[in-house]
Amino acid sequence: MLHPIVKLLVQRIALGLLLLFAASALIFAGTQLLPGDVAQSILGQSATPEALANLRAELGLNDPPVQRYFNWLFSALHGDLGTALSNGEDIAQSLGKRLGNTLFLAACAAAVSVPLALILGIVSVRYRNRWPDRLISAVSLASISIPEFLIAYVLIFYVAVQLRWFPSVAMISDAMTLGQKLSAIALPVAVLTLVVLAHMMRMTRAAILNVMQSAYIETAELKGLAPIRIIARHALPNAIAPIVNVIMLNLAYLVVGVVVIEVVFVYPGMGQYLVDHVAKRDVPVVQACGLIFAAVYIGLNTVADVVSILANPRLRHPK
Amino acid sequence: MSDPNPAIPAPEAPGDEAPLLDIRDLRIEATVHPPGERPRTQQIVKGVSARLRKGRVLGLIGESGAGKSTIGLAALAYGRGGVRISGGQVLLNGRDILRLPARGLRRVRGKEVTYVAQSAAAAFNPAIRLMDQIVESALEHGVASRAEAEARAVSLFEQLGLPDPANFGRRYPHQVSGGQLQRAMTAMALCPEPDLVVFDEPTTALDVTTQIDVLAAIKRAIRATGVGAIYITHDLAVVAQVADDIMVLRHGETVEYGPTAQIIERPRQEYTRALVSVRAIEHPENPPEGAPLLSVRGVSAAYPGVPVDVLSDVSVDLHPGRTLAVVGESGSGKSTLARAIVGLLPPREGEVLFDGRPLPPRLKQRSREDLRQLQMIYQMADTAMNPRQTVRTIIGRPLEFYFGLRGAERDKRVNELLDEIEMGRGFADRYPAELSGGQKQRVCIARALAAKPRLIICDEVTSALDPLVADGILKLLLDLQRIEDVAYLFITHDLATVRAIADSIAVMHRGKVVRYGTKTQVLTPPFDDYTDLLLSSAPEMKLGWLEEVLAHRRMESAGH
Amino acid sequence: MIRIPLSALLGLTVTALFFAGAALAPWIAPYPMTQIVGDVWEPASAEHLLGTDSIGRDLLSRMIYGGRTTIWIATLATMLSFLTGSVLGLTAAVAGGWVDQALSRLVDLVMSIPTLIFALVVLSVLPTTMTTLVLVMGLLDSTRVYRLARAVAVDITVMDFVEAARLRGEGRGWIVFREILPNALSPLVAEMGLRFIFMVLFLSTLSFLGLGVQPPNADWGGIVKENKEGIVYGISAALTPAIAIAALAISVNLVADWILTRTTSLKGGRGE
Asked: Gene3D superfamilies of this UniProt entry (chain A) (predicted)?
């Protein structure tokens, strides 16, 4: 017989896939709100009716929406994301390198922010309601209230323009060494870290506090255990699941924050690509980017749930 | 209190051997944060002294808020939830543990003194096997090797009557029952061979038939290991079974402190006398007269999506102006019966007759008149009243809704009802949060009475209240029954309550009525097995009751 | 007597000032919004308190009008989000069954796509007008309000006093408006503050990306965009609107925080 936890995991992953499928439909439907005029927007107002009709036929716009959706989805599953309307380039090809750049930026930001958030979260629990905690929570409240691009420009203004420590635009290319790349993205990474840190730290603090206030922690304390042993043996196993959850949710948040930051720093990633093409009303590119962002987001959320299931002793050791 | 700060002598004469635990003038305070006000300091324990010799048991008893758990934890120099020990001494084995630094304190906790919490389910770490948690203190403090500690744990499991002692420790907390977990917690406290164990309401969360077994197991284990113990509870009858001395607490002060026999048999203080005589309400049994008001006929019911019946073939009658007590443990189906009667859970089979005619099974199909005649009072008065409504709205709404009373007319009736529940008219403009537990329940009673019902279903209405307050509510209900001629269907797990108010009794077990009749019939032997178990499990306020029951059970099982 | 903590008082004052500025913009702005009155990026002076912008318009006037646009759109979007989210959330909680299932699954689906990404997808085909912005922002955000309203209401509907009202025979209207709503109000009001901040940030982000309010009109995000080139030359004009956004957001946050901690769920009825 299958272990019940395997069944749960299969269910959760299947749900993730189903959600991704539904999300793709939603993205497709979202771009159909203004029907039929893609051809018009490519050729402009002065286009002849014949040219419009030809282009519509070429793009398959005369097929019913449902059929077009499945054509699109089927091609996308085979790695064919279509061609951009604005310049006729193959979308998958343009996206490939940009996706890599975006993930590089996000991964660097995560590598800095996750450990920092955990440390600050623990510090703020350790000194709960004393000044370190208050300071951390005040700063995090402020940074939640500030838009990403403000943080970015403040840093550019002081660090890049006045102090000239780092460049104000984050150009990277294949010719650069890893060190050069890291130096190029230092500012965007700092901004992303600041943006995501507050949320992550607040949630980590809440997750740890929740565990530390459990009755079994009191039991451990009344056993005369040393604080370090209480945390390592009694708190940590129960805190891992909520903390991993917090991290995953914030990484998902980070993936979105990347969009704005890339625009600010003119970074050649997916976010900038998406925003450019929204302005150009280049629907196939927008659909493709939307699908990839949604996939990453749903994927991270699914991982968070899978970890919670795996970490739950009630599910791991059923009656 | 009538006697201001009575000098209460410790029950031991001077010249005794040095006590294991000597609490001297203990003072504990906490900072409370009332919403919208400045935080202020509140005294929780106001100068309490007690002494305990090795191998003896001290019972701490009092209502909620008396400070008994706080004192118990002070024996481990621990303040729960922002509580501060502000004065006095706690001498354990001759040294003041309140003065110990953190390191020294850690060597005392879990080695010399251990703790058994009320809710073992929360007190065990869900992610660690029971055995690893149980031997943890012994290993941490170097009392024993792992093999020795585990061997001791297994023998404790055996002593405490746990199933399959050799393998019990391999399980995780969520894999064993509540009663077993409570015993495992006792084993955890006894494993490092401490000098003192603090038991904090260890049986309160358990069903009555489980409670007696756990209580007996704890008592046996205390005697066998020769450990000293503090036993905290709100139930005097329970503590009388295990304690050598009892301290009665109220509002953080000692009311009376003495040997168990003296406290139970010759209480000196008014308050102690009230506690001893609690639930000794005299209520003559009224025989059923005329046609039944409520008739439950062959009702079976199940929750949607659950294949098992929660109620199976239940039939009971209730006559006008009488009280039917439905008694059983958790999971017996007694509250489900109430839900079936009021129409929240339509029966799968059978019917409910009211005044001779069948009631529609679903709430939505019932007429407003049907609803009016059948009212309900809940266990938790806290959640049974909308916190955003004043007492006037809460009691006045049924008057508006059923009788169309408005304005002055309604207010007049609200005032009358407030008088009936023995609360002043000044309470009309208060919100539920501004009432005490007993007052809240009274307002709920008034709300039910406002509908002028012929039947009120009382679902565990006194179980969340302190004994003396509960007594007041029961007396009020009996008085109101005489005045208003209303019938009660009284759902409870507490046999003392049943004895106090019932005219007839239905005993429920696993969804079935196992015994049903007038109070005299039901409470007179010969009993069926379950009723016997249930009746004999209810703690009685006398010394040696536990031993009598256990002896009685041994004879029974020998006889079978 | 209710004590208002200093932080909340400060938040209330600043928030009120911002709203007053938005309402009175035409009367207090020294220059018209789109008129070129000076050189490019003039420093602050007596005539131009905050200097001029990238094409020589008075920055203070643009800030005041921009604030009007920002606050106006954010307020409308918050109201839309709130109305839709809380009505649907309460309905789902009280009705239960398939209504609840259908609504909740739909909301799960919409929330499975990051809000900004979804907004970009939709804005790639819709005309960028104020109405579109309000609708897109309000409806996308109503999913958050829905979740909260439903969760709060579900907690309340299982309480005994709601059952007591049902047993009395009360209709759905009484149960929703007299039993549930008064108890759900304070978390919802606090959430309204947070949603408003989110709207301000969201709109600013969209405008900053060039996909929100279109020139020559501008909101604060748009003003950042217009002046961002100045940053590399050490001209701080782009930081001014950003500071305004942060000030508004922080002050509303302080008020919301206070409301939330003061009226924690189901404690008391007094002091509303």
From this structure: MetI-like
